[in-house]
Amino acid sequence: MIESWNYTGPKEECGVIGVFAPGREVARLAFFGLYALQHRGQESAGIATSDGQMAYLHKGMGLVAQVFNENNLTPLKGHIAIAQNRYSTTGSSHLRNAQPYLIETMSGPLGIAHNGNLTNALHLRHQLLKRGVGLSSTSDSEVITQILAAPSDVWADTRPGPPINGSNQADRWVARLRAFMEIAEGAYSLTILTREAVYAVRDPLGLRPLCLGELEGGGYVVASESCALQTIGAAFVREIRPGEILRLDAHGLTSLEGRPSEKQALCVFEYVYFARPDSALEGQLIHKVRQQLGRQLAREAGVEADLVIGVPDSATPHAIGYSLESGIPYSEGLTKNRYIGRTFIQPDDQLRKVGVSLKYNPLTANLAGKRVIMIDDSIVRGNTAGPLVQLLRDGGAAEVHVRVAAPPVRHPCFMGVDMATYNELIAHNLGVEAIRARIGADSLGYLSIAGLDLAVKTAIGHDSGHCNACFSGSYPINIPEWLFAEDREKLIFEDMWG
Question: Could you give the residue numbers annotated as active site?
């Protein structure tokens, strides 16, 4: 797991997978798809499958390779699967909150894997409890599961228009999904397992990504990122549209309108940090977009130096772009221990004092006597920037100039990203000069919000609309006041467990 003592940036809630492949045992496809999405969540992993009659489930705490082995993967029979790896936002890090959720309903098994966060989860939770529905976890994803388990007309009094009645099993699930989408607020990309199908659903704003791929020999895959499709040999088809319901079953692929999309607001942090550089979003490779962010940063926050380096691995494309635009040579200045974050063994007090040295080592031959520009993708709490600057100085750097390929993170996220609270966000509490002094850099510069928007628009070739609320404070949906409380987790959910 990624330990809290070594926090390096904002953390996504999860990655999700859905597979429908007649004639194949798909649990292994789901496993390797999750492996490709491990960067999106490291707290828990799970796979649910169906063979058209029975449903099967295994999930646990830890990384994908720690949760699954031959003994627990083999019993996951069937040609239908959904899967998820998770980083907790709503709901603590505990096995009871691990996904997928799998329950039995009057219409057969129902499994849910969710990426995102419902901003009206508290209201929906109270509605379920009032109706006598028991809840066993603190996750809003269980709320989604229980809403979908009920006939669509149960929620008719909470949404406009007449109830949607389906004449067959597939129609009934679509009716329930549409009813859910009418009352749900916030971010959700869902993969849903029933006895006979996989459904993929994306919220009307498209806040969290979800894409479709086609398997050689027949069948389809949906995944949070296209890199997962490539890993399991699926050809990218397209992204799931905001507000769309996609059904994968024996009849093939069926696209249905779930809830009309009036505007789009894909999280712009996918381009800055979350998505793997080999994934594609909105028709463009993430690596290319990040290079464009680095180029724009060089235009806005140039400084005389001898060397450009990136904080590995996420800031490497930004640093390459900065180097190309500025003409200052790019090289490696830090080597990352890529396995230090994959252990459950906590460091002792002495090792905690070492801090980032557990994860990074300076390349002294490259740094000695050099004026260094260190490119980072973001500074959220500010816990690691200072130790990294000191590590470069200890490695022989004469000057260390920090440049950030994103604007200052001044506001929390409520759409599925752990972006800290106002009290924890360093840029909410300190100005740029004060942050520079805090981290010990010779200079500090950020990409502007306008520069971020311009760079993304330039890279993808159009302006489809993005959420930049963590930078601007302009949220694409109304945020309930109680979500801004510093102790909201305790206020909303955790006190029920004592």
Answer: 14
